[in-house]
Description:
The complex is a heterotrimer of chains A (361), B (277) and C (258).
Chain A: E1 4-11, E2 20-27, E3 32-36, H1 43-51, E4 58-63, E5 66-67, E6 78-81, H2 93-103, H3 108-121, H4 137-149, E7 155-159, H5 167-184, E8 187-192, H6 195-201, E9 204-209, E10 212-217, H7 219-224, H8 229-234, E11 239-244, E12 247-249, E13 252-257, E14 260-265, E15 278-283, E16 288-292, E17 299-308, E18 312-319, E19 322-329, E20 340-345, E21 351-354
Parallel strand pairs in A: 3-8, 3-9, 6-7, 7-8
Antiparallel strand pairs in A: 1-2, 1-4, 4-5, 9-10, 11-15, 12-13, 13-14, 15-21, 16-20, 17-18, 17-20, 18-19
Helix pairs in contact in A: 2-3, 2-4, 3-4, 4-5
Chain B: H1 8-38, H2 48-55, H3 57-89, H4 93-107, H5 111-122, H6 127-134, H7 148-172, H8 176-184, H9 189-200, H10 202-218, H11 221-226, H12 234-244, H13 248-276
Helix pairs in contact in B: 1-13, 3-7, 3-10, 4-7, 5-7, 7-10, 8-9, 10-13, 12-13
Chain C: H1 4-27, H2 45-52, H3 54-87, H4 93-105, H5 108-122, H6 127-152, H7 157-164, H8 169-180, H9 182-198, H10 201-206, H11 214-224, H12 229-252
Amino acid sequence: MPHLEIHNLTVSYEKNKPTLERFSLNVEQGELLSLLGPSGCGKTTTLRSVAGFIRPDAGRILINDRDYTRLPPNQRDIGLVFQSYALFPHLTVFHNVAFGLRMRRIPKKEVHARVANALKMVGLEDFSDRRPAQLSGGQQQRVALARATVIEPQVLLLDEPLSNLDARLRVDMRQEIRRAQQQLGITTLYVTHDQVEAMSISDRVVVMNQGKIEQIGTPEDIFAAPETAFVADFMGFDNHFSAAVESARDGKLTVNWGGAPIELRWHSKFSAPQPGTKAEVFFRADNARLSAGTEARGLAGQVILHTFHGNERRYLVETELGEFSIMQDSAGERFEPGAAVTVQAQTQKWIAIFEEMEQYA
Amino acid sequence: MIRRPNQTRTVILLVAPAFVFVLVFFVLPLIFLLSQSVLPEDGGFTLRGYVDFFQSRVSRVVYLRTLKLGLIVTGICVLMSYPAAFVLARMPVRRRSFLMSLVILPLMTNAVARTFAWLIILGRRGMINQTLLSLDLVENPLRFIFTETAIVLGLAQLFLPLMVLPLVSAMENIPNDVLEAARSLGANRLTTFVRIVVPLSSDGLVLGATLVFTGSVTAFVTPAILGGSRLLLMSTLLRQKAVILFDQHAAAVVAVVMILTTLAVNLLLRVLRVQQV
Amino acid sequence: MISRWMYISLVILFGFLLGPFVIIFMASFGANANLAFPPQGFTLDWFANVFETSQFIDSFWISLQLGLSSTIVSLVMGMPVAYALTRFQFAASGMVETVFSAPILVPGLVVGFAMLNFFVLLGDMHVMTGLFIGHTAILFPYSVRVISASLRNLDPYVEDAAVSLGANRLRGFLLVVLPNMQAGIAAAFVLGFITSFNNVPVSLFLSGPGVTTLPVSMLSYLEYYFDPTIAALSTLLVIFTVLLVQTAERVLGLSQFV
C-alpha cells in the first residue's frame, strides 16, 4: 500500500482552464519522489494541494489510507519547506524550530530536547539564539528543514528549496537534504525545475508538463530512456532529427545516417514499429564523434561555430539532417569554422521516439 | 501574492466593516451634496446653481484665480525641487534620510502655524517691510498681506515637500551606471540631466504636480489667513457661501465644482503617467 | 554629476522650507506685541498666555482624544482591508483600492461640508461624534496604504508555514504576521495621529459650540488677535512634532511610508 496516494486530482484557478487535470500519483513509504517540470506545469499546485492550501475541484488525497482531501492544512501533519524558506523573522532559530511543537502542546522539556536534536542534525546547534536575518541563505535553508522535520510529519514537502542558493551551496544542500531524509525515513515530495537536482536526489522522478504526467521512473530510466520528446528535451538531449524507420527487429531499428543504416534502440514500452514509421531520434552532444574531411561512413557536415569549455570543445555542425551540437575532448583535433567534418554516430545512448505515440511533439 | 481559489467569503468579511463605514459616512454625504447642488430647497431638479456659478462674475473670477494660483504654485515647486531632489537622491543614505526628515517636518506641522510665519514676514511691520524701510527703498510700508503673492508664497511653502518626496524617490531608482553611460557616450552634465534624469523621473514629477496642484486649489487655511475675504479662492468662497451667506445650495455647487476640478486633474495626470509607461 | 549650483538649490530649498520656522521661533520670544521684525527684547509671556487661554487648552484635549480615537479605529478597520489587498487576488480589488483612496482625493473642506449637511439630515448628532466620523474616514487611506506597504515587506508564505506547522489562520496571523508588522503599525499610527491632529478643513465645518480642535481654534484666535501667542503655541507644536517625527524616523524609517 502506498503511503501517499493522489487520485484524479483536478485544480483550476480559472474556470475551464485546469492547472491539474485528473492527476494521479502514488508515493511509497520512505520514498523521495521529485516532481520535475517547467514553471506552470502544475508541480507546485500538486504540492500545495497535498499541504492543504488548495482545495481541489475533484479528486482525493490519502495518507496511510486516511482521506486528507477536506482536512484543513493545520491538522494535516505535513512538513513543508518553502522556496523562500518563510522563516519567522521575529523569532530566533530555536523558536522557529519549536513553533510546530508548541502548536502541538508538547511539554517544554521535550520541546528543548527535540529542537536541540533537529538543530544538531542540520549542524546549527550553536545558532539557536540567532534571528533569521543573521543567517546565510544555506543556514536559513537548514533551519527551514529542521523546522519542517522536527514535528515528525507523515509526509515532507519541499518546494524548490534550493533555487535561492548559489550553485556550489546547492550541491552541498542537496546531499544534506537527501541524508536527512534517509536518516528519518520520511516520505518526501520534492518539487524542482532542475533536472540534475531531481536526478541526484530522488528515488523516483515524475516529469510533468501542462498539468499531466509525461513519465515516471527512476532517475536512471528517465535519463537513459525518455518516453516522449518533451522528456527527452527536458533531460538534456541536445540534438534531434526526424527519420523514417527502415526496418525493426530484435529490439533494434534502423534509420538512414549519411547514406548508411544505423541501429538504434527504442523504449521497451512500445511495440516494434512498422517500416516507414516516422521516428524522432534524440542524442546528447557527447554521443557523437567528429573526424576531419568527408569519410565514406558517417554524415557529412560543416563546422559553424567552435567554443572552448576546458575539458571539452563544443561544435555547432550543419548537416543535411539539421544543425547538431557536438562535444569533443579538447585534447583531440581542433576544427575551425568552415571546416568539412564527418559526424560519426555513437548510437548506444541514442533513442528513437515514435510520432504516433507522441502527444506533445 | 498567493493565489487561493474560493476565497471570496474571507475577502468580503475582511473588507466589509471599513467598506460600509466609508460608504455610509463618506460616499453617502457626497451623494447628498451632489443632490443639494441640483435640488434647491424651494424647488425641483435644476442646473440653475451651476449656470449661476459660471455666469456670476465674482465666482468666475474666484475660480480662474484659484486655477491660476495653483498653476503658479506648482511651477514654483517644480523649479525649486528638481535640482535639489537630484542632489538629495545621490547622497549617502544616512545624510539623505536626515535631510528627508527635515523635508517631512513641515508636512507634519499644522498649516495655521506655518502660514502664521508669513504674517510676520510679510506684515506691515514685518521682516520685508522693515528691511525695505531701513534701506530707504520705500517711504511707507508696502501691503503684501491679502495679495496673490502672499497666497502663492504660503501655498508653495506648504506643498513643496509633496513635490520633493516623489521626485527623490523617483530619482533614487535611477542607477548611477545609467548616468555614467550617458557621460561616457559624450553627454555633458546638463545634457545628461535633461535627457536622462528628467525623463526617468517624470513619474515622480507628474505625481508631485498632481499633489501640489490639487492641494493648492483646495487648501483653506492659507487663503483664509493670507487672502481673507478680500481675495477669495474656491475654498474661502465655499465657506463664505455656507457660513456667512447661509446659501447651502450655492455652497454645494462650489463644493461640487471643487471635486470635479480635482478629479479632472487627477484623471488627466493619471492618463499622462500611463502614456509614458 | 552634481555641480555647485545644484548644491545652492538645495540650500534655497531648505531655506524656504525651514526659514518660516526660524521666524516663528524668534517671534515667540519677542517682547513687542505687534509682531514687528526683528523682535525686541526677550519674554516668555506669550508661552504663559498659551496656557492661560482656555480655548487652546480645551481644544488641545479635544484634538488629542480625536486623534487617538480616530487613528485607532481607522487602523483596526483598515488593517483587514490591507490584508485582503496584499494577500488575496480578487476581482473587485481595484474598486476597493479606489474607494479607500477616495477620502484623500476629495478636498477636505468639501468632505467636512458634505458631512455636516448629511449629519444634520440624520438628526441630532453630537459634535464630537461628527468630528470622530470625519477624521476616521479621512485616515483610512493612510492606514490602508502604510499597513499594505508593511505587509508587502513580509513574505506571504510565513503564514502558510505557521499553518503547516499546526496553527489555525487566526493564530498564524496573531503569532507570525502581527509581530512582524509592529513597525508598520507604529508608523501608520504616528502618521494618522499627526494627520488628524493637524487637520483644519474637515474639522472646520464639523466643529461646534464649545467643541473645537486645536488648529481650528488657532485659526479663529487669529481672526481677533494678532500677537505672538500663536507663534509661541506654534513653537510648542513644532517641538512636539519634531520629537515625535524624529523618534519615529529613527526607530521606524517613517519616510519610506510617506
